[in-house]
């Protein structure tokens, strides 16, 4: 007897979905309510559970296929081989001789402020494998970062509770280590997977080894940033970014070509979870907020002169360079006090006004745009702001920002000028209601007191949520920023 697995009701007006991921393959044992696959619609992700226990039969709709409501996805053969418990919870064989008697739960580590879930992307170990303490077991992906989960104890991986593709909560159990001991010495690291550094055997992160193998990169070509020189996944990415791309044909599978010549010049690469999240959040921002952009321009003469006059003394005293970002941060904090709705957010039918400024500073990284947050920027000095921007910018480029460091921002500054952008309309970073776009400083002829003079000018753009920020407030904000930058003494006088 077999049971059909069909597409569930997807919601009002939603008529089709795409099969994103199969968590089971034909022949796998499944339990009732165990997740079989994940469907994606234009609005939500839907997980499809098993309606009966048994063995996975035929998969009718493969990954990437578009299916309608009630379409047949797969079949489950009931009876012989039926699972009484989820297959992902398969027990390991008897513990190895000499291992301890205790079992230790492997839990989801702290993911960061307001982050409530993650997706299990890769298991580096399988049930029955021997693991060392601190050896990487699996990798989780959240909206912004990848988190590698180390073994809390040495022993045998006796149970995997959350299979690859499973979405888990912030305090969920991932696996169980049986015969656990508190010392990694019970499970020595093999020479093939470790490198001696300073007399110590160092186990590279499994995700890093996998990335090096896929890219054909030698371990000697990568500098490890982890403990004791351990190579992490981000270290491989940085090494690849610094190495010219090989001329060999890409390993990814091209889509159906128009011509044979086009096929050899195309490459299909699956979007990272970070890039998918960026795409989703930007589109959600456009769909949710009544976004509008207003523009102005600022004469940077006074700021540039002030910076030139004091930059050496500033760096000598504070140990950090004086840049333009501290002036813009100060100017925005000054303007936000006068126009508090730009620093507010909508929560249902309420407007939440923030009596503080947690300033987001957008930073480009090899993996995509991230926005580290400088907390209480309104109460910081120029030197404190410059130090915070430099430190968080470096951590962003190195891929070492924690989730907590990218949460809670109330306003954002994005500087496209560093890439040469002359004019753009930045997209809101929800749930924030305002974002300032900086641009390239360019000499332009300006009429000053009836005379045409050359001045270093920058276009400013403020994108704002028109649901709570009126045009008057948006224009006033930009004018105040302009005034503060064109006469920086106003910041000292609080004018």
TrEMBL record:
Protein name per its UniProtKB record: Dihydrolipoyllysine-residue succinyltransferase component of 2-oxoglutarate dehydrogenase complex
Pathway the protein takes part in: Amino-acid degradation; L-lysine degradation via saccharopine pathway; glutaryl-CoA from L-lysine: step 6/6
Keywords noted in UniProt: Acyltransferase, Lipoyl, Transferase, Tricarboxylic acid cycle
Reactions catalysed according to its record: N(6)-[(R)-dihydrolipoyl]-L-lysyl-[protein] + succinyl-CoA = N(6)-[(R)-S(8)-succinyldihydrolipoyl]-L-lysyl-[protein] + CoA
Role this protein plays: E2 component of the 2-oxoglutarate dehydrogenase (OGDH) complex which catalyzes the second step in the conversion of 2-oxoglutarate to succinyl-CoA and CO(2).
Compositionally biased intervals (Polar residues): 183-196
BP term (GO), one: tricarboxylic acid cycle
Signal peptide positions (record): none
Domain annotation Peripheral subunit-binding (PSBD): ranges: 203-240
Gene Ontology molecular function terms on file: dihydrolipoyllysine-residue succinyltransferase activity
Cofactor(s) it depends on: (R)-lipoate
Domain Lipoyl-binding: 2-77, 103-178
InterPro entries: 2-oxoacid_dehydrogenase (IPR050537), 2-oxoacid_DH_actylTfrase (IPR001078), Biotin_lipoyl (IPR000089), CAT-like_dom_sf (IPR023213), E3-bd_dom_sf (IPR036625), PSBD (IPR004167), Single_hybrid_motif (IPR011053), SucB (IPR006255)
Family in the record: Belongs to the 2-oxoacid dehydrogenase family.
The protein's assembly and partners: Forms a 24-polypeptide structural core with octahedral symmetry. Part of the 2-oxoglutarate dehydrogenase (OGDH) complex composed of E1 (2-oxoglutarate dehydrogenase), E2 (dihydrolipoamide succinyltransferase) and E3 (dihydrolipoamide dehydrogenase); the complex contains multiple copies of the three enzymatic components (E1, E2 and E3).
């Amino acid at each position: 007897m077999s049971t059909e697995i069909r597409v569930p009701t997807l919601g009002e007006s939603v008529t089709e979905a795409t099969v994103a991921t199969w968590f089971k393959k034909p022949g796998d044992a499944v339990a009732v309510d165990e997740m079989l696959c994940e469907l994606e619609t234009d609005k939500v992700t839907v997980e499809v559970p098993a309606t009966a226990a048994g063995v996975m039969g035929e998969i009718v709709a493969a990954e990437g296929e578009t299916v309608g409501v009630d379409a047949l996805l797969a079949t489950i053969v009931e009876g012989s081989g039926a699972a009484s418990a989820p297959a992902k919870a398969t027990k390991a064989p008897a513990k190895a001789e000499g291992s301890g008697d205790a079992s230790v739960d492997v839990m989801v580590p702290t993911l960061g402020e307001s982050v409530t879930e993650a997706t299990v992307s890769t298991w580096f170990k399988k049930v029955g494998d021997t693991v060392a303490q601190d050896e990487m077991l699996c990798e989780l992906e959240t909206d912004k970062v990848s988190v590698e989960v180390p073994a809390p104890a040495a022993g045998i991986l006796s149970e995997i509770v959350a299979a690859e593709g499973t979405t888990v909560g912030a305090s969920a159990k991932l696996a169980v280590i049986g015969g656990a001991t508190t010392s990694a010495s019970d499970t020595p690291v093999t020479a093939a997977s470790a490198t001696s550094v300073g007399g110590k055997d160092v186990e590279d992160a499994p995700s890093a080894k996998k990335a090096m193998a896929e890219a054909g990169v030698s371990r000697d070509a990568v500098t490890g940033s982890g403990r004791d020189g351990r190579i992490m996944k981000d270290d491989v990415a940085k090494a690849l970014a610094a190495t010219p791309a090989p001329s060999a044909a890409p390993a990814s599978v091209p889509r159906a070509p128009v011509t044979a010549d086009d096929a050899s010049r195309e490459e299909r690469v699956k979007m990272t979870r970070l890039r998918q999240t960026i795409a989703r959040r930007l589109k959600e921002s456009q769909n949710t907020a009544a976004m509008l952009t207003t523009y102005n321009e600022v004469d940077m003469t006074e700021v540039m002169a002030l910076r030139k006059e004091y930059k050496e003394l500033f760096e000598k005293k504070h140990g950090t360079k004086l840049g333009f970002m501290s002036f813009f941060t100060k100017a925005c904090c000054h303007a936000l006090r006068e126009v508090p709705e730009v620093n507010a957010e909508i929560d249902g039918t309420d407007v939440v006004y923030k009596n503080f400024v947690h300033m987001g500073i957008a930073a480009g990284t090899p993996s995509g745009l991230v926005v580290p947050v400088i907390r209480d920027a309104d109460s910081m000095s120029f030197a404190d702001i410059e130090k915070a921007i430099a430190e968080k910018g470096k951590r962003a480029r190195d891929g070492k920002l924690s989730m907590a460091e990218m949460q809670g921002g109330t306003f954002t500054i994005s500087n496209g000028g560093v890439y040469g952008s002359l004019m753009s309309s930045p997209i809101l970073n929800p749930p924030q209601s305002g974002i300032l776009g900086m641009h390239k400083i360019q000499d332009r002829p300006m009429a000053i007191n009836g005379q045409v003079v050359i001045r270093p000018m920058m276009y400013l753009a403020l994108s704002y949520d028109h649901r709570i920020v009126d045009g008057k407030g948006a224009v006033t904000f930009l004018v105040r920023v302009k005034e503060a930058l064109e006469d920086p003494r106003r910041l000292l006088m609080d004018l």
